[in-house]
């Protein structure tokens, strides 16, 4: 049985799950660094939001980021939303290209971070430590922004679910 991307209750401890496959609408960036993320996320999510408002695609879940290689080195990044069916053609929005993307089904570990985004580093550290302790190797990392940030959102109430999708069906 595969787990839903979002559960009602946060994952207070690292939990192993089987994640279902997802189609995504994403803005793709190649060979970026952690320091560049603020420059990519705001315009990217603005363009994605404009496409949603224009009914170009409809998300089936919250915003997410897919880290397709080790974020300690230059890495490939997709930012976007899960969608029910794959995009058939790329979309232009606010000067950026929204492309079809996907996350494959398979085993993963998940942990929720409750609080400001500056706590994500420590949460990722805990998750990755737990993954290594379990003898597993992460292949793809996924951040799901369960709580939509708004100007009135209390940062202490933000929930971000972190997923480490495992290599080779471990």
Automatic annotation (TrEMBL):
Signal peptide: none
Gene3D superfamilies linked: Regulatory factor, effector binding domain
Highest taxon in the source lineage: Bacteria
Domain AraC effector-binding: 12-167
Cross-referenced InterPro entries: AraC_E-bd, GyrI-like, Reg_factor_effector_dom_sf
Name of the protein described by the UniProt record: GyrI-like domain-containing protein
Species this chain originates from: Skermania pinensis
Record lineage: Bacteria, Bacillati, Actinomycetota, Actinomycetes, Mycobacteriales
């Amino acid at each position: 049985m595969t787990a839903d991307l979002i559960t009602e209750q946060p994952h207070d401890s690292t939990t192993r799950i089987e994640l279902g496959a997802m189609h995504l609408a994403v803005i793709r960036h190649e060979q970026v660094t952690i320091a560049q993320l603020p420059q990519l996320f705001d315009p990217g999510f603005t363009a994605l939001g404009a496409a949603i408002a224009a009914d170009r695609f409809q998300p089936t879940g919250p915003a997410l980021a897919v880290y397709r290689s080790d974020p300690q080195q230059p890495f490939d990044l997709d930012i976007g939303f899960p969608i029910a069916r794959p995009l058939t053609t790329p979309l232009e929005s606010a000067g950026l290209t929204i492309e079809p993307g996907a996350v494959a089904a398979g085993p993963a570990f998940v942990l929720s971070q409750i609080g400001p985004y500056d706590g994500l580093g420590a949460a990722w550290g805990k998750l990755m430590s737990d993954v290594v302790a379990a003898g597993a190797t992460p292949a793809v990392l996924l951040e799901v922004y369960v709580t939509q940030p708004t100007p009135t959102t209390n940062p202490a109430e933000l929930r971000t679910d972190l997923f480490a999708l495992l290599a080779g069906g471990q």
